Known about the structure:
The chain is of the alpha/beta class and 452 residues long. The chain folds into 3 domains: 5-58; 63-194, Rossmann fold (3-Layer(aba) Sandwich); 214-367, NAD(P)-binding Rossmann-like Domain (Rossmann fold). The chain has helices at 5-21, 26-45, 47-51, 54-58, 107-123, 144-158, 177-191, 214-229, 246-257, 280-291, 297-304, 333-341, 357-366, 373-376, 379-392, 399-421, 430-449; strands at residues 63-72, 78-89, 95-101, 130-135, 167-170, 238-241, 261-267, 270-273, 307-310, 321-323, 346-348, 369-371. The strands form 2 sheets. The chain has a 7-stranded mixed β-sheet, sandwiched between helices. It has a 5-stranded mixed β-sheet with strand order 1-2-4-3-5, sandwiched between helices. β10, α12 and β11 (346-348) form a beta-alpha-beta unit. The longest helix has 23 residues, at 399-421. The protein is globular, with a radius of gyration of 21 Å. The two termini are 29 Å apart.
Amino acid sequence: MGTTAGGNQDLARFMAGLVKRNPGETEFTQAVQEVAETVLPFQLAHPEYAKAQILQRMTEPDRIVSFRVTWQDDQGNIRANRAWRVQFNNSIGPYKGGLRFHASVNQSILKFLGFEQTFKNALTTLPMGGAKGGANFNPKGKSDDEVMRFCQSMMIELQRHIGEDTDVPAGDIGVGAREISFLFGQYKRLANRFAGVMTGKGLSFGGSHVRTEATGYGCIYFTQNMLARLNESLEGKTCVVSGAGNVALYTVEKLLHLGAKPVTMSDSSGTIFDKNGIDEEKLAYLKHLKLVTRGRMSEYAEKYDCEYLAKKAPWCVPCDAAFPSATQNELDVDDARELLKNGCKVVAEGANMPCTRDATNAFLDAKIAYAPGKASNAGGVSVSGLEQSQNSVRASWSREEVEAKLERIMSKIHDQCVEMGEDDEGHVDYVRGANLAAFKKVGGAMLAYGAV
Ligand code: NDP
Ligand code: 2IT
């Protein structure tokens, strides 16, 4: 928020330099712009940060490893994909962040995700730096054997760059329990050591209870915290959720625990709108559909005879609360206006940067309870951090213990946002709060290290 003419000029200059250094990287530029709008004025008002060029340094990854992954498909054809690990910032702990497998993956997307991850991880209160990786490999329609061969080939290179005190990857879009198992099994074989170098592992080989559920559950815990400040709750609220993957499924599950009424979910082909609400039995069907048979949401619409909005997102459905949980830029300014017009009062991002910049601004201007992903979806990486702790001391904490810790962490993330984002009238700008709290933490460590 460059409130002065001078502030706006500084921001414009800063962004022009960034765009020039990162040509064509629109997602990365977008993520930095959102942070710079709040953080640059803060840096300029604090000469020690300005002198040390903290924001400038934080927008340049420590390193990017880019490599080819060659594998063989079931027909015997040789296939080649491009993969990356973006190690963004390890000022407050080893690099940490997921791996994404999707046809759209490129360096710009992984840089935006690694940059955001640095801020998110700082908010968790756990000692984790920020990173992201992945490949332009499309797992859709591939057999288990093909996915296994791809993962094993990818790890041949990735294993050189990761380690429990160096960089600890996990899952993201297209990388779930199956992929993590193939990747970790290959690491263990290549390195001849069993160590906590990845999170999201199976329970019998070093995984943590509640990691699978953590992002969705955490997003709803965060929402509960926002609503509690307003003397409100989720009970009885109509909720729209996008996506049908790991984050969306457990967002719906926690909404049901709290007596809310989720009415939509979606995939890249369309949205199901179930007026009667997605209940526990329908959710069990969905988990099987998405995680076992890897089917499409249209199958749900047929089975339960509900409305199917082909090629559409859920944002036209009237609701009290919205949880975008699929992918970046899935909700634009027209969608935001429609949600607001229909009375939506709460938006919590399960995905990373699902709202375009204009959509975010529409929510901020309307002063609804709006949580940016780096705060509200931090539950996943938080339980990853707890998995790392358990691996370090070779312990396995109970489900109750991990869930209680997750709930406490989400509450602490919320409180940091309030501390840095509350205005004189008591309204909280969670974007501002999250950006400033994280910047102070990571930037403070960088200041202490001097010019390195
Ligand atoms: P999954 O792969 O489990 O599910 C992704 C879902 O989003 C699928 O339903 C998919 O539909 C849909 N989707 C993906 N890309 C697109 C697209 N381009 N257009 C429309 N729909 C799309 O991923 P996750 O649930 O793990 O991740 C969802 C979001 O949450 C991502 O932004 C991720 O970065 C973020 N996140 C994930 C965390 C985690 O722990 N897993 C933690 C924090 C954030 P389809 O099957 O048709 O592709
Ligand atoms: O975006 C994210 O926070 C994740 N995909 C989870 C990262 C992790 O290391 O658990």
